[in-house]
Amino acid sequence: MTAASDDLPIPKYTGAADDGPVQDWFYLYELHATAASWSEREMITNFTDYISVVDASGKPADGLLEGTMAFIGAFDECLDTVVWDEHDSSRLIFQGRYCTAQVAPKFTLRDLFHNESQAHKELATYLPKKAMLKNALRIPGNLVMFRVGLCVPSTCSKDDIERMVKYTVKHMDMKAEVTECLQREKNKSLSVIQITVITLLAAFLSLTIIGTVTDITIKERRHPKAPASEKHGRPLEALLCFSAYTNARQLFAPEDKPDSLRVLHGIRFLSMTWIIFGHSYFFIEHVQPFRGLFNGHEMYSDNFFFSGIINFTLAVDSFFFISGLLVVYTNWKELTESNGRLNVIRFLFNKYWRMMPPLLLSLGLLFLMPVLGDGPFWNDIMGTEIKLCEKSWWSNLLLINNFWDSKEMCLVATWYLACNFQFFIISIFILIPLYNWPIVGLTATFLLLLAGSIVSGVITFMADLPPGLIFYPDLDTVSNLVTYVYHKPYNHIGSYCVGVFLGYVIVRHRDIKVKPVIGWCTSFSVGVAVLWAAYRWNAELPSTPVAALYAATHRVAWCVALAWLTFACVAGHGAIPRRCRVEDRRR
């Protein structure tokens, strides 16, 4: 199809307001027919194939007033459409080409009024349903965007389609953009990165198979009286590290060491479950495939118990708390044996070496995603992620990626690894003083906690940010919160320091006398207050000073509550399940 000028003889738009979206939709197809040359249309004699192009395009769906934002169409039907010349079977007329158009109003209801009260006053007559008006006002503009899947002949370029869509919607005072156009490729070539990743994965799989077979063979031939931990030499031991048999046994039947803190296993499990739930509901960049977005917003903002799930980022700080606790607890023995000295190089290398394999595997699999699947939303997510990683993958390997803008970060979830490793570096300057000069070490830990809280509060106040990752309709503001506060080490260093304090108490003052009732009441009250303080803020933000105060203190307060729970299980305090109470009695 040849792109035409703005004066191209395009049918006049005759749809009125009461024609509805269906009239606009068929007008778009009239544009298709006009923009195509007569010779192309004349050759489309296979009526079924032609209809499949129209059929595969998205149509207005039910539930528009409840937040149905996507008319995806039939992606595979479109790409599978192939039309040949009936007079020359070797001549391809066109294939189906799937294009994604995003259409949005040039402004939202929130842009028209100073506040919600004014909007309610002005619009109550037209939108009497209070919940609908409330949701319409609070849904952010970048979510009030209709996504339309258009199936067009491959002879149409992306520019052709974008011009036609823009021409159509401009009569409705809307803006539009065609984000991508896809068609079936027969022979996809692999990039150098993809070939490298496949080669490395094949080598790893080969080592796993060889290691597993060797391991089983050795076990079968071992003398019954031979020790289970028999040594075989370094090369063979290295190969046996890849044994799926031994690794699976160790994974599903871990050794219960007498000095392990089993209470942490429970905290890890519950925290990870909470994080999965929270991420499933909270991250809404790609909600367009779903229906009922307005109902979802109402559930987020008005459901008291559901607000606890939305405050899931506290569970992330549970892991920082555990890291701080374990860095003291697991290294205290080495400090004791070395008279307060620490092998810093080995200390950091072991941590880095343990973190890299899963990170490298994640990066490698990401680059394989383009050849592992497709779909109307596939490139939106995977394509964007791959482009970001092509630019900044090295920051992930250096574990400094949490200092990038959240919109420019490769594998956003890996900010946690970067933050954790940065705390591990900081812990060097805490551990040694903590062992040799406890007052100095404890003071330094407290000052770090205080500094992190102050910086988080000040940035929240100065930038007028929400108090935390609550459900807030302005995604740009949430992005700023994530970039300047949530991903940064100063926002979580307090949680880590609480873990350091508890680790020191456990290794040096486990028998400290406390009243369990006071501990449990305080811990429960603080935990509940922190968890549900944000309930009303999902609907209406607090004042800036209150937001700054909550941002500065809530993560530390949560970890203080966790610290008592952990200490009670270790020291055997309080009316909690007996198995937890006695698990770590003085050894």
UniProtKB/TrEMBL annotation:
Asked if the keyword Membrane belongs to this entry, the reply reads yes
Q: Which segments constitute the Nose resistant-to-fluoxetine protein N-terminal domain?
A: 41-183
What sections of the protein cross the membrane?
192-213, 267-284, 304-332, 352-372, 413-432, 439-463, 489-507, 514-535, 555-576
Is the Nucleus keyword given for this protein?
no
Q: Write the record's keywords in alphabetical order, separated by commas.
A: Membrane, Transmembrane, Transmembrane helix
Recorded hits in InterPro entries, A to Z, give: Acyl_transf_3_dom, Nose-resist-to-fluoxetine_N, O2_lipid_transport_reg
Q: Which GO terms describe its molecular function?
A: acyltransferase activity, transferring groups other than amino-acyl groups
* A Pfam family annotated for this UniProt entry: NRF
Known PANTHER family for this protein?
O-ACYLTRANSFERASE, O-ACYLTRANSFERASE LIKE PROTEIN
What is this protein's name?
A: Nose resistant-to-fluoxetine protein N-terminal domain-containing protein
Q: Which organism is it from?
A: Rhipicephalus microplus
